[in-house]
Write a structure and sequence with these properties.
The protein is of the alpha+beta class and 547 residues long. It has 16 helices and 23 strands. 45% of the residues lie in helices and 18% in strands. The two termini are 40 Å apart.
């Protein structure tokens, strides 16, 4: 990139930089975003297919979870990366609906291309899309229905909808029950009596071996640690648990110091004092009344020996996150000084037991009274199965959490998108300016979801779209496509329900990404290590490939 000043060229960018401007830049960006949308489009819905992703090291991921696919794909294009950010945002806020958001975003850009060809300015298209999104959010709020969160059957419908189409679908009822119990247990009352669900309080441990039906919810915590000493009991009932964030070892001096021992008596005294300190640590634990010790740092062999003699179970090097969850599960307090450990700091559990699972050992801290943190131990035949069940469970936990927090849901199966298309089209007729064209295109873009559901189910998308529109024009706002029978049915009665937050976030994020990409008219990229002007391209000369 260079300018001219009195015939002298002025270099602004370093050599090797690339610049794309105007329509070419817009076209490149739109095509990159559309490519991302088309990559995940076939995974949408109950009949969606899976993707196999292989990274540079040969590690394999098999999934149909939108956000996982986009995270694992090594995307170069900056515009495509924006679509990946859309999926991440939706995943963080709502847990589900990532594929929907990316597919709608891609379709909005595809429709914008038509408008750009009609010489409509990008800022007019952006305004139209923003107006349409505002109207769509209002319509969503109108058509959303309240859910009785005490009714587990209603919650189960929402959890089942989130897992439909995923690998673990066969076990959806069983997994839905686990998700609902877990989320209800960790629900807390926050500011002004609002329900708050922090799914980080649910710890998920994966163990290969067995089948999905062996997945269990622990009323407490399961930590991937084994008891440190063979002389310790493997099972403790009515456990009093000390949570210690301090090394149960000889304290090292704060400053660097040297001790010179000249006689054997001095050495004996030195070792005796060390032993006394170790015994003192074990005595402090015993005096507090603890019979289980979970330590975040190391435990000296001698301390292990004394604890084993006292019949105390101990594990070491527990993760910080596990320690924090154990506080919530057992009601104990993390102590940083063993000398100050008291009875009031101890947590309680009905049972602490070490169990062998799939060739490894785990410590189960169960039967906690009113635990505010729980563990789910996922089982499955292979690593790929266990990973996919974890992703499905993540979506279920998040959607159940959204419903418990918000209490509002909408029908799935393309019903919402068809209703939004209808209502946004009606709204576009009331506009006078050029943005009316963009609002119309927004309505068309919404129809990509029912169209994709039909395509992925092997049905004729045009026929099904016509039937769907007709049903909605008759006022059947919950009419959607049953992917299994191919019929247009009431999705709410069919139990296909999604949280309002999921749909809302999908629409908002898709519009944000589309508008941001549309407004770019100049792409300036500085290449790292660009070859000098006139130099040979990287990779050497052409010809036969080397052996």
């Amino acid at each position: 990139m260079a300018g001219q000043l009195g015939g002298i060229p002025i270099l602004v960018l370093k050599e090797g930089s690339e610049r794309t401007r105007g329509r070419e830049a817009q076209s490149t960006n739109i095509n990159a975003a559309k490519a991302v949308a088309s990559a995940v489009r076939t995974t949408l819905g109950p009949k969606g297919m899976d993707k196999m992703l292989v990274d540079a090291l040969g590690d394999v991921v098999i999934t149909n979870d939108g956000v996982t696919i986009l995270k694992e794909m090594e995307i170069e294009s900056p515009a495509a990366k924006m679509m990946v950010e859309v999926a991440k945002t939706v995943d963080e806020v709502a847990g589900d609906g990532t594929t929907t958001a990316v597919v709608i975003g891609g379709e909005l850009l595809k429709k914008a291309e038509d408008l750009l060809e009609q010489e409509l300015h990008p800022s007019v298209i952006s305004l139209g899309y923003r107006l349409a999104a505002e109207r769509a959010i209002k319509v969503l709020d109108e058509i959303a229905t309240g859910i009785d969160i005490e009714d587990d059957e209603e919650l189960k419908k929402i959890a089942r909808t989130a897992i439909t189409g995923k690998f673990a679908e066969d076990s959806r009822d069983f997994l839905a029950e686990i998700a609902i119990k877990a989320v209800k247990a960790i629900t807390e009352t926050g500011h002004e009596g609002k329900r708050v669900v922090d799914t980080d309080n649910i710890s998920v441990e994966k163990k290969v071996g067995g089948r999905i039906g062996g997945t269990e919810l622990v009323q407490g915590m399961a930590i991937d640690k084994e008891v440190v000493h063979p002389g310790m009991p493997r099972k403790v009932e009515d456990a009093k648990i000390a949570l210690i964030n301090a090394a149960l070892e000889v304290k090292k001096t704060e400053t660097s110091a040297e001790v010179k021992i000249r006689t054997s008596d001095q050495l004996k005294g030195f070792l005796a004092e060390e032993e006394r300190m170790m015994r003192r640590i074990a005595e402090c634990i015993k005096e507090s009344g603890a019979n289980v010790v979970i330590c975040q740092k190391g435990i000296d062999d001698l301390v292990q020996h004394y604890l084993a003699k006292d019949g105390v179970v101990a594990v070491r090097r527990a993760k910080k996150s596990d320690m924090e969850k154990l506080e919530k599960a057992t009601g104990g307090k993390i102590v940083t000084n063993v000398e100050e450990l008291s009875k009031s700091d101890l947590g309680h559990a009905g049972l602490v037991e070490e169990r062998k699972i799939a060739g490894g050992k785990m410590l189960f801290i169960e039967e906690c009274e009113n635990p505010h943190a729980l563990s789910i131990v996922i089982r499955g035949g292979t690593e790929y199965v266990v990973d996919e069940v974890e992703r499905a469970l993540h979506d279920m936990l998040r959607v159940v959490g959204c419903i418990i927090e918000d209490g509002k849901a909408v029908a799935g199966g393309g019903a919402v998108e068809t209703e939004l298309a209808l209502r946004v089209r009606e709204y576009s007729a009331s506009l006078k300016g050029r943005e009316q064209l963009a609002v119309d295109k927004f309505a068309e873009a919404m129809e990509i979801i029912p169209r994709t559901l039909a395509e992925n189910s092997g049905l004729d998308p045009i026929d099904k779209l016509v039937e769907l529109k007709a049903a909605h024009e008759r006022g059947e706002k919950n009419a959607g496509l049953d992917a299994y029978t191919g019929k247009i049915v009431d999705m709410w009665q069919g139990g296909v329900i999604e949280p309002l937050r999921t749909k809302r976030q999908s629409v908002e994020s898709a519009v944000d990404a589309a508008v941001m990409i549309l407004r770019i008219d100049d792409v300036i990229s500085s290449k790292k290590g660009a070859p000098p002007a006139g130099g040979a391209p990287p990779g050497g000369m052409g010809g036969m490939p080397p052996y």
